[in-house]
Design goal:
The protein is α+β, with helices and mostly antiparallel strands. The protein is 22% helix and 32% strand. A hairpin with a 5-residue loop joins strand 21 and strand 22.
Length: 454
């Protein structure tokens, strides 16, 4: 059944162009449109990028270059290319001199490489069909985990960043159909990623065909598209945030990150006009997520990662095990709230317990499906060390029954309900006069059945 409310959470192309791309200035777009300028600026900010081997501005530069000096493992790309067009990926040298092997095993010769560069210089693949320049970069040494998922190119992670906060991400996997390029429009696969855990959720191929399994070349069998853990996840998010900090004139950007098995996360490029298929991969709308962080003052990279984790983390158990039997919760439940590391709770009666490697305390909670977001009593939050400045995500303005406006803190919190881990953002409210100091809203009750019996 068509869900109009959910549809309105999605960002359309017209909205992206008319509203959010206005966050990107002309100078910011010029940087993003030039892979060379991008590489130079973000590398100065400490972001890792692939090594530049050569750059051709004219055909005279091309004529002077000696292809035979290259051992292989390089990429030829247009400086102002768009959508993955014009990129030629070379895996290794061929059997004979003057030959190289592409990712799909096809053999190309020096003549073919020259022709590709001449087409790039002529502007065949440039964003505005104007004369372009050629970049030759080292090809990334693919992380071992990614090698098992494709033999056709280098997978990457696309992260959408808005207001210095990662709001959505997907894992792009090249296929033979896409010619070894991680571009969904050309036939690559895209897997949505849960921002809190770095674990894949849903998958599509090409422009939107949903897929449920992907072939694992290591295990030589199909595996589910959900449940794949992306290595260096926090570092990937930090890298994407650093890119926007390095180019602050791009308020809305896509960052393409690859994982080198030796150097970790490296940025291939930033995109000032990121595509919208990422919403289909995640089955979530960009518009709703962008609106949540619009106007928030982001204090630091840690704060940005925390916002992404608590605001956009999925109820992941639903993604991995959709057929899992739902548990029942009573109107009143005992939840286990995680205590910040190194903090000693200022509680007299509640003992400190263990939940795996974490310290927790039992808190009596009331289930309220009429409330969207969960809330915790202010005094309890202070006693548990959850109301410190570094744990406050932002302040939410609300109007009291007396018509007065107040700012209510929203904090990140982790708790366990019937053994299930919930990572979420909760309101801080005054519940001194209430018997239950924690209220469970329906946002954190996904996958549970609420019983009417006490």
């Amino acid at each position: 059944m068509f869900n109009l409310r959910k549809y309105r959470q999605f960002l359309t192309k017209n909205e992206r162009n008319k509203v959010y791309l206005r966050k990107n200035s002309a100078s910011g777009k010029a940087i993003a449109d030039s892979k060379f300028k991008t590489k130079r600026i973000i590398s100065k900010a400490g972001v890792s990028v692939p090594k530049l081997i050569a750059r051709f501005k004219t055909e005279q530069d091309l004529a002077k270059f000696r292809w035979e000096d290259l051992e292989g493992n390089f990429v030829i790309k247009p400086e102002s290319g768009y959508g993955g067009d014009g990129i030629l990926i070379i895996r290794k040298r061929g059997k004979w001199a003057g030959e190289w092997q592409k990712m799909n095993g096809e053999i190309v010769k020096s003549y073919d490489l020259n022709m590709q560069c001449e087409e790039i210089l002529a502007g065949k693949y440039s964003l505005h069909t104007m004369p372009d320049r050629v970049l030759i970069e080292e090809r990334i040494k693919i992380h071992p985990m990614f090698l098992s998922l494709t033999k056709s190119g280098t997978p990457d992670i696309r992260v959408i960043v808005y207001n210095n906060v990662p709001v959505m991400a997907m894992f792009r996997i090249p296929t033979e159909k896409s010619g070894g390029k991680a571009n969904l429009q050309q036939g690559a696969m895209g897997l949505g990623i849960d921002l809190a855990t770095g674990i894949t959720t849903f998958g599509i191929e090409g422009k939107g065909e949903e897929i449920y399994r992907i072939y694992d070349f290591g295990k030589k069998k199909n595996r589910k598209v959900n449940g794949i853990k992306i290595p260096f996840w926090r570092e990937i998010l930090e890298t994407a945030i650093n890119c926007q900090k390095a180019v602050p004139t791009l308020g809305f950007m896509g960052v393409d990150v690859v994982l080198d098995k030796e150097k970790g996360p490296m940025v291939l490029e930033v995109n000032a006009r990121p595509g919208l298929s990422i919403q289909i991969c995640n089955k979530a709308g960009l518009k709703a997520r962008i609106e949540k962080v619009d106007g928030i003052t982001v204090r630091s990279i840690d704060h940005a990662v925390t916002l992404a984790k608590y605001l956009f983390g999925e109820s992941f158990f639903e993604k991995v095990e959709e057929k899992e039997k739902k548990q029942t919760v009573a109107p009143i439940e005992i939840i286990k709230v995680k205590i910040p590391k190194g903090f000693k709770p200022l509680l007299q009666k509640s003992p400190i317990l263990k939940q795996g490697k974490h310290r927790v305390v039992d808190v009596r909670a009331k289930v309220d499906t009429g409330a969207f977001r969960s809330s915790i009593d202010r005094n309890l939050a202070e006693k548990l060390g959850l109301l410190t400045k570094d744990r406050i995500l932002y302040y939410r303005n609300y109007k009291s029954s007396l018509g007065k406006h107040h700012d209510r803190p929203v904090i990140g919190i982790t708790f366990w309900l019937n053994g299930r881990k919930v990572i979420t953002a909760v309101n801080v409210a005054d519940r001194d006069k209430l018997r239950t100091k924690f209220l469970l809203g329906r946002k954190d009750l996904g996958g549970f059945l609420v019983s009417a019996k006490k």
